[in-house]
Amino acid sequence: MSIYKTEEEFLKHYDSSAFEKLSMTSDILLISVSSEEKENYRKTDKKMMSILLVKRTDFPYKDKWCLPGGFLNPKTETLEECAKRVLKSETNLSDIYLEQLYTYDAINRDPRLRVVSTSYIALVDKNRLSKDLNPNASWFDITLIEEKDGVVDIILDNKTEVLHLQIKKTLREKTTDRYQFSTKKNTLAFDHDLVVLSGIERIKNKLNYTDIVFNMMPEYFTLGELQNVYEVILGKKLLAPAFRRIIKDKVQKTNKQTSGDGHRPSTLFKYKRNI
């Protein structure tokens, strides 16, 4: 039975040192789509999914690449507000699509102290971003190679450095999480290898039943460009007639056309928001 008569009295005498403290971070998997230089000017630009990484300048994991992130200020912000602050500092934008992914709480994930990380997916049209990045930041194109026994190789390439991530994907039973991931080869700092694959899996799974892809598209686009982005994310080719049936209620034809790209003008479409 409590010795206190009111909650105010209880809180006044509460000893917060009775429990261990921990720190929390928000880490951001910022995903965009970039265009490779095309060998044939008559073809649509080849798209690549890319993520933003930051090279650490101090210990722990000095000189390792990691996802953008920051420590939560527990007195002034929520985890989502922390994530938005990090995004603003990296992109100078405040209206980017943001979705919570997972919470990572392995006991020794940070060698400094107990740190629990909540990861977020952020999606952006790269045309909105300034080309002047944080000097320690770089965009890496992603290539996924599914291998036998559930081992996934992820190749990250920023044209000057190539990173290889290797992750084991294990099917779970009787759980809301379809897969569990374990690092086979830890390349990024902390457990950010796992965040990358988890985030990509989330985007792939949501592609067919949400309009999430349009957060990475410019205002106007051709159907060929949109199909290319779908194919990049899904990792497979799509038949044009079937694809157009899938997206017919999601796009709106405009009176605009492409110009100056070396081939017959194509009709431009835009996202049709269904409220």
Automatic annotation (TrEMBL):
UniProt domain NrtR DNA-binding winged helix: residue ranges: 213-270
One Pfam family it belongs to: NUDIX
Domain Nudix hydrolase: 47-145
Name of the protein in its database record: ADP-ribose pyrophosphatase
Organism: human gut metagenome
